[in-house]
Amino acid sequence: MTLPPSDEPQAVQSDADLTLEARTEPCSTDDPQAASDPDPATSESYPAEPSADTPGTEEPLLFANVFQPEPPPPVRIPHLGHVLLLLLYLLFGGVATGIFIGLGVHFQLFHVSSTEAALNDIHYTLGSELILYLVAFAFSYFTFPLMWHRGFFAGVQWNGATALRLRWWLIGTGALCFLIAILNILFVPGPANAPIEKIFKEPGAAWLLFAFGITAAPFFEEMFFRGFLLPALSTAYDWLAEKFYHKPRRPLDPNGQPQWSFSAMAIASLVTSVPFGLMHAHQTGDSVDVVILLSCVSLVLCAVRLITRSLASSVLVHAFYNFLLFSMMLMGTEGFRHLDKM
User: Fold this and answer.
1) Is the per-residue pLDDT at 43 higher than 60?
2) Is residue 43 part of a domain?
3) 266 and 295 fall within a common domain
4) Which domain holds residue 300?
5) Do both 191 and 109 map to the same domain?
6) What is the pLDDT, as a whole number, of residue 196?
7) Per-residue pLDDT tens for 128-145?
8) Do residues 216 and 139 share a domain?
9) Do 224 and 123 share a structural domain?
10) What is the tally of structural domains in the chain?
C-alpha cells in the first residue's frame, strides 16, 4: 500500500539531488544587495579586460624617457662636499673656542688674566680643542643624516660590532705602531725642549693629556681623517677615473656604501696621512722625522679602516697606540712626578 503523492514525505533523496540543491540554492544573508547579486564564480560572465596591473600586459608609454626619467644613481657618501661642510662646522667650533677663551680670561678662570697666557695654559689648550671638536660633531650629527637618509654613524661606517669582534687583532696592530715609534725614538731622537714637553711639565697637565689622548683625541681625529676625508678622497679618485677614462661606476655594497678601487684607496691614504702628520708637527718642534713617523702610523690606521670597513676599528688602534705611549712616559717618570727624565 502506498500513500498518496500529496501526503508522501520527501525523506529519501539521492546524493546527486542533495549536491545539486546545495549548488543551486542561494546563500541566506541579511544583505538584500548581496542576495540580488549573482555569484561571480557561478554566473556566466565575459572575460575581464586586461589591466595595467596584470603581468605581461604592460604597454610601452610614449615619451617614457621624457616624463619618467631614470632615477639618478645613489650618492656615494661621504664625498668632498661633505668634507667642506665639516670644515665649515669646524669654523663654527673655532668661533665658540674664541668665545670660551675670551670669557675665561675676562673672569680669570684658572687664574689666567691674558689671552697669551691662556694659549699656553693646559686647561685652555685642551678645553678649546674639546669645544672645537664638540661643536663640529654636534652640527654633523644632526645635519648629515638629513642629507644621507641614514644615521650619522651608519654613514661614516662606524661598525662597532666589527671592532669588538676584531679587538685582539686591533690591539696587536696598535702595539705594532707603538714598536715603530720606539724604534724611531731610539734611532732618530727628537728635538729637545719641544712644546709638548713644556706642556707636560705644567702641574696636572700630564694626567689631563693622558685622559684626552686616549679618549677624545682618537675619536674626533679618526672621525675627521678616516671617517670623512679618507672615503671622500677615495670616492673623488674613482669619480675622476669614471669621467676621464670612461671606467664603469662601481656599485654600492649591500649596506649602501661605496666600493673603491685599490688605486683610489692607496692614493687617498697617502693624501690623508700627510695632513695628519703635519697636524702634530708644532707640538713636536716641527721635527721632520716625527711627521714621517705619524704619517706612517696614519697609513696603518687608513689600512685598518679600509680593510675592516669600520671606523671604530681605527679609533681603537689609535687609542691603544696613544695609551702605550702615555704608559711608557708614566712609568719612565714614576707617575709623572719626575718629568725631567723625559
Assistant:
1) no
2) no
3) yes
4) 156-341
5) no
6) 72
7) 999 999 999 999 999 999
8) no
9) no
10) 2
| Helix/strand/coil (H/E/C) assignment for every residue in the chain | CCCCHHHCCCCCCCHHHHHHHHHHCCCCCCCHHHHHCCCCCCCCCCCCCCCCCCCCCCCCCCCHHHHCCCCCCCCCCCCHHHHHHHHHHHHHHHHHHHHHHHHHHHCCHHHCCCHHHHHCCHHHHHHHHHHHHHHHHHHHHHHHHHHHCCCHHHHCCCCHHHHHHCHHHHHHHHHHHHHHHHHHHHHCCCCCCCHHHHHHCCCCHHHHHHHHHHCHHHHHHHHHHHHHHHHHHHHHHHHHHHHHCCCCCCCCCCCCCCCCCHHHHHHHHHHHHHHHHHHCCHHHCCCHHHHHHHHHHHHHHHHHHHHHCCHHHHHHHHHHHHHHHHHHHHHHCCCCCCHHHC
The verdict on 146 and 188 lying in the same domain is no
Mark whether 225 and 261 lie in a shared domain.
yes
Give residue 207's identity as a one-letter amino acid code.
W
**Phi and psi angles of residue 231, each rounded to the nearest 5 degrees, phi first:** -65, -30
Q: Which of 126, 153, 180 lies at the terminal end of a domain, its last residue?
A: 153
pLDDT tens for 141-172 read 999 999 999 999 999 999 999 999 999 999 99
Q: pLDDT for 198-233, tens place per residue?
A: 777 777 888 999 999 999 999 999 999 999 999 999
Note the pLDDT of residue 335.
65
Residues 204 and 225 placed together within one structural domain of the fold? yes
Among 96, 122, 153, give the residue marking a domain's end. Answer: 153
